[in-house]
Amino acid sequence: MAKVEIRRVSKSFGEYRAVNEVNLTAEDGKILVLLGPSGCGKTTLLRMIAGLELPTSGDIVIGDKTATRLHPKDRNIAMVFQNYALYPHLTIYENIAFPLRVRRFDGNIDEKVKWAASLVGIENLLARKPRQMSGGERQRTALARSLVRDPQVFLLDEPLSNLDAKLRNSAREELRQFQERIGVTSIYVTHDQVEAMGLGDRICVMQGGVIRQVGTPQEIYLDPADIFVASFIGSPPMNLVKEEKRTVGFRPEIFLPESCFEAGEDLFRVQFTIQRVEYLGGDRILYGMAGNPLPPTKVVSRLPATVNMSPEIGSTVSFALRQTDLRYFDAEGVAMPVTQRAAVRKVANG
Amino acid sequence: MAENNTVLPGDRTLAYLAIAPSVAIMILLVAVPTVTVFIISFQNVGAGELSGPFVGLRNFERILSDPAFFTALFNSFIWVFGSVALEIVFGLGIAMLLNQQFALRGLARAIILTPYLIPTVVAVLTWKYMFNDIVGVLNYLLIAAGIIDHPLQWLNSTSMAMFSVILVGVWKFFPFVVIALLGILQAIPQEQYEAAQIDGASALQRFWRITLPHILPVLLLTALLRTIWTFHKFDIIYLMTGGGPINSTTTLPVFVYDEAFVDFTMGRAAAVAIIAFFILSILLAIYLFFMKRAEARQ
Q1: Which of A89, A196, A332, B134 has its CA 20 to 30 A from that of A247?
Q2: Chain B residues in contact with A83 (beta carbon < 8 A)
Q3: ipTM greater than 0.90, yes or no?
Q4: Do the chains contact at A102 and B202, CB–CB below 8 Å?
Q5: Strand ranges (DSSP E) for chain A?
Q6: Nearest CA of chain A to the CA of B258: how many Å?
């Protein structure tokens, strides 16, 4: 096992800077998720770690070896591709055996292949060809093929994006259990925040070739480092209300009717005019306009089914949230530290 | 069954009517000549005649006891397999080069195609000038480069003529192989190579284990088509050497031509054509067998 260090890595394609001065460490045995919208540089970064792209500058260290200019095969990494990249003319057995055969593995290939196949539960599909397999089975084959030669690092490029929504949930859970069992350092690229939150020990949010925030799923969700992360994570995303010199942020699911809070709690009260209600079963999403004391801005509230309220369109209701749940961002969109938040609150409350 | 057919019976009549002209032309241009050749091969037919007295298998007996026929048959095999093998190897190499990313790739692809577009007569005359032992540019260059010390008899020696003719054929037709293989090479997903690279495959292993299995059905089909066309090729050889010197480049089509239009023995020419037809059929059967197997493995 090994940790992966990315030191001031940049990558330019002509004039376009895909990755810009990125510093990042993937801890030994943990899952690091690279999350961001398409074109944010996350796949380019992964391909540089794999050795499929050469960084324009900076260094990549795998274990205690500088790997920046090493050939992919000399890095002892494995990669699962978005479309799995299985070899169509080979059986599943031969697909899994491929890395051993091309490296002239001198141990018992048959034993290794069957071991890898059993780890992902495809040991009775070995005689098939990839095109005779379902999406989930192909994905497992790709996993088995990548782990058959005990790699130091696992690289996964959106491995669940080709599965349908239902299968994706169970595959995500399987992937998580599987990673815990083998304990290999993993770097996982996705644009899906649910996948990132569910899988990652740590998440690295990227945008425009730079890192916006690195942290645990809780840190990313509760304390977004800037307005981009705040609006990218969460569904619906954080409400952001622009005031004169700063932006106030609060999550839709903690923005509830005042009656939901106990008396004596330190609340921040907002007048909320309801414009539209979306019924989602477990939740209702209320779209509307925030009013006094905030400047008029579109905001969203997410009411759990347990809240007993029949929202009327057009009505103005007193909503509230705990003072400690408010987040503030400065004029540049960067989150203010906790100490500063308290001071701002004092000023705001007079 | 007709009742399960979604097309109305009336539509089917229309379909027959629609293909009737093409079928009529096919019969006129393919079936009639083929049957005619079959019939003539059992007759004694001279110049300017379309039929003659029935002679049974005598034409075939004469042919099969003629050493010149076996020379032509041997030459045909050398010509076909020499040409096709070189075209495939050379064509595949160029196709793989043109599949790489480089500046002016489009231009390079266009230039590679030019031999295929040049009319055969023009190409042959140009090559004949280049092959000329006294004023030819090939001898001049090879002597200047110090590779040979005296002019080579490219077309006038029995040992070199076949090689020279194959050289021209390969030059003329390898672009066809390039076009066919470039198409399938571009269809191989890049991730396959990247996955193999990460799995530890060397460049040679990537070629054997990924490129070749992917392109094999197209490669075989291309070889099959080139074999048929090369087997029938007449113009290049006839224009270059006329089958000489001393029959050293006489292939079956040239032999047929000599029988029919030099010796005016149409019946024997037809018999050679029929034998050639069966030999080619056997070759095609072998190719089709391998193609089926390659496709089944995909």
Answers
A1: A196
A2: 189, 191
A3: no
A4: yes
A5: 4-13, 16-26, 31-35, 57-62, 65-66, 77-80, 153-157, 185-190, 202-207, 210-215, 239-242, 247-250, 256-257, 267-279, 283-290, 297-304, 316-322, 327-329
A6: 49
